[in-house]
TrEMBL record:
Residues 25-44 have a biased composition (Low complexity). Gene3D superfamilies: Cyclophilin-like. Residues 83-231 form the PPIase cyclophilin-type domain. This is PPIase cyclophilin-type domain-containing protein. It holds the Pfam family Pro_isomerase. It comes from the Bacteria. InterPro entries: Cyclophilin-like_dom_sf (IPR029000), Cyclophilin-type_PPIase_dom (IPR002130), Cyclophilin_A-like (IPR044666). PPIases accelerate the folding of proteins. It catalyzes the cis-trans isomerization of proline imidic peptide bonds in oligopeptides. Residues 24-64 are annotated as: Disordered. PANTHER family: PEPTIDYL-PROLYL CIS-TRANS ISOMERASE B-RELATED, PEPTIDYL-PROLYL CIS-TRANS ISOMERASE-RELATED.
Amino acid sequence: MAVVAAVLVVVLAFVILATKLGRDTSPAASPSTTATPSTTPSASVAGCTRAPERPTTIKTQGLPDKATAAGKTFTAVVTTNCGDITLQLDGAKAPQTVASFVALARSSYFNDAPCHRLTTQGIYVLQCGDPLGGTGTGPGYSYGIENAPKNGQYPAGSLAMARTSDPKSNADQFFIVYKDTDLSSVPEGYSIFGTVTGGMDIVEKIAAAGVSGGATDGAPAAPISILKVAVTEKKA
């Protein structure tokens, strides 16, 4: 009986984490599975302006060739309604993931996309990337995991892809880790494809404002949306 109980605990832990970091593909009944952002802030955060209305459609496209990012490093400036967040993208370690992110950014896919989920207990991430706020089906393609840490540790500042329980469901949604997070209970993990090099204070103040309604997983109480993403390749 003790062995059975232990197995059930492990399975339950995976289900919870997969739900929190899943690439949501359908409307959900509660904030524990998706979060629909509001354009009216429920918390006041210095430096943030009113979040824009989110798009009503998604621009679908084909899977970018990973060769366009392989061995390259990119800088992405994510302009939000709360300020700029700067990312360094590692095409050497995660070429397909970086190629996808760069292509989506350059096609204006992320414009006005809300960061629809904040988690403040157990795991510490801000999840963004779906123009429809966590209810979309993605950009028309998906791909597998790259560069997932074997020990399941995601340090603060990590930039990683969200997905469902299917390891090949990576697409548009990504998350920023704002506090060291242990995801070792999740089989196969999540792709780390870069790091935050500037603007982490923005993510931290959104996290400090908490989740809408006082929950620990759901829409940020202080809405934050991506206005645009500018990507440039770093030359050696």
